[in-house]
Amino acid sequence: MAEVWKARDLRLDRTVVAKFLRIAERGAPAARRFKREARILAGIDDRRVVRVHDVDEAEIDGERYLYIITQYVEGDTLRTVLPTGEALSVARALHLATELCEALTPVHDSGLVHRDVKPGNVMVRHARCGGVARAGSTDLGGEEQLVLLDFGIARAYTAAGGLGGAGRITGTAQLMGTPGYMAPERFLLEPEGPAADVYSVGCVLFEMLTGSRPYVGDDYGELARSHCHGRVPSARAVRSELPAALEELLLLLLAKRAGDRPADAREVARALRELRAAPPRTRRPPPDPVGRLEARLDAVLAAEHTPAERARLLTEIADTARETLPADHVGGWYLMLRLARALRAASAPAAAAERLAPVAARAREVYGPSHRLTLACAVNLARYLGEAGHPMTAAGHLAETRTAVADTLPPTDPWLSEVRFDLAHWLETAGETGRAGLEYRALYEDYCRTYGPDAPETSRLYELIDRATSEE
Questions:
Q1: Each residue of 290-322: pLDDT tens digit?
Q2: What EC number(s) does the entry state (predicted)?
Q3: pLDDT on residue 85
Q4: What local confidence, expressed as pLDDT, does residue 163 receive?
Q5: Among candidates 252, 247, 280, which has minimal Cα distance to 267?
Q6: Is the dihedral of CA 111, 115, 118, 123 positive or negative?
Q7: Residues 338-355, mean pLDDT to the nearest whole number
Q8: Which of 283, 341, 264 minimizes the C-alpha distance to 105?
Q9: To the nearest whole percent, how much of the chain has pLDDT over 90?
Q10: 8 Å CB contact between 16 and 71
């Protein structure tokens, strides 16, 4: 694993980046990759690709190191600039995507595939003053510039579209990269060309426009299946005001077959420039169905109603959402989660459980058991079922959730802790005090580590253990 440091070039009085790799012996695969990365970067002269100043070997404290000295780029990575779960303006997303494709164009022209295009490998800087483009900042338009980083797993490709053996940086049997942005052919170990980078650009553009990657999940196999065989998602289903031409371009970029995508970054940059030059639509965008339902929900919650009247109005909104929104509309899922909470607050837990159950099942199917939306649905669904008089059913749901996420979440994860605590609570409510006591006791050490042994949360848990034990 290489170490990266911000450093000062004393001879030329400039800030640089120093990347060090400890090598056990000359000619080791990692060392060869390291040197090839330097040669690749040195051969590309473009302001959007990080520049190499030097590469050499050195001995430090008796250990041999390779090092690359590269340009220091003032700014933030695109990963930092992207607000979590939020979308950028269309104009800003198109500008940044164009910059990214223009950075990749000389790479592809040099016969190379980057193979790890993702927000974390792209720096965003303010062209006018070299400042940092912060998350959630206003649309800076043409003042923002991108610089492409990290060519550690880049490869040369042949004219026929396959990867050239002599020019590759990674070994034949290695599958390296970031699964959330990898093209299907990479998972399938098929020949890769510039179209693999084009697919990654599509993933990044989709995330900038919607606030989420096209496919999400914590499990590698699940992500591989989604990228290779899953339905290509619609950005307009999440954000209805997006231009139809932009949706069509996204579908091309995310096509499963490399041959169905634009050939390279130059072609994508051309298409993006045409989209940016297109005149704005004169007609108003269609109203957002989720926005309308959210407005109705806010109005009901703000008004004075009896619990029964509020439950009736909320049920009407939930029924409308179920009838009018697509089954996989993520915005609709969050709306239904909020509606279910409001129904429960209106003393209608059974209605809340009925509305939330299909969303919980679909979220688990699409995102996997460890996703925060899936866990939020599971915890709330169990709560509503228990309050509706079905504590053992609630406990069963939570036990299943705990088992499903045991290998992916640490015991102290806040959501997993809530799942485990609620499981014990509903077991106790159902009269299973022995099992409840075991669950409470299993939580105690984790609470001590998380909150401290004298914290109110830990003291309350100790009281519950004592109560469950005395009732056995």
A1: 667 777 877 877 788 887 788 788 888 878 877
A2: 2.7.11.1
A3: 64
A4: 47
A5: 252
A6: negative
A7: 86
A8: 264
A9: 25
A10: yes
Question: What class has domain 3-71?
Answer: alpha beta
Cβ–Cβ under 8 Å, residues 15 and 7: yes
Q: Is residue 323 classed as helix, strand or coil in its secondary structure?
A: helix
Has residue 49 got a pLDDT over 60? Answer: yes
Please answer whether residues 41 and 51 qualify as being in contact, where contact means their C-beta atoms are separated by less than 8 angstroms.
yes
- Which residues are bridge partners to 52 per DSSP? 70
Domain 76-277 is of which CATH architecture?
Answer: Orthogonal Bundle (1.10)
CATH 1.10.510.10 domain locations along the chain: 76-277
In three-state form (DSSP H/G/I as H, E/B as E, the rest C), the secondary structure along 413-435 is CHHHHHHHHHHHHHHHHCCCHHH
Phi/psi of residue 363, each to 5°?
-60, -40
Three-class secondary structure of residue 305 per DSSP = coil
Q: 370-390, pLDDT tens digit by residue?
A: 887 788 888 899 999 999 999
What is the fold, at CATH topology level, of the domain defined by 364-472? 1.25.40
Give the separation between CA 286 and CA 196, rounded to whole angstroms.
34
Residue 208, token pair as written in the block = 């900038």
Exactly one of 76, 116, 150, 264 is catalytic; name it: 116
Q: Which long-range contacts (CB under 8 A, 24 or more apart) does 450-457 make?
A: 450/412, 450/417
- Pick from 46, 21, 263, 40: which is nearest to 168 by CA? 40
Task: Note the Cα 435 to chain centre separation in Å.
Answer: 37
pLDDT tens per residue, range 191-235: 889 999 999 999 999 999 998 899 887 678 888 888 988 888 889
What mean pLDDT do residues 432-450 have?
88
User: Which letter, b or e, does each residue of 437-456 get, where b requires 16 or more Cβ atoms within 10 Å of its Cβ?
Assistant: bbbbbebeebbeebbeeeee
DSSP symbol at 326: -
- Within the chain, which residue ranges are assigned CATH 3.30.200.20? 3-71
What number is the average pLDDT over the span 254-263? 91
* pLDDT (tens digit per residue) in 323-345: 777 766 766 777 788 788 888 88
Name the region of 95 (left: φ>0; alpha: ψ -120 to 50; beta: rest). Answer: alpha
The strand order across the sheet containing 52-60 reads 3-9, 14-22, 63-71, 52-60
Is 116 assigned a catalytic role? yes
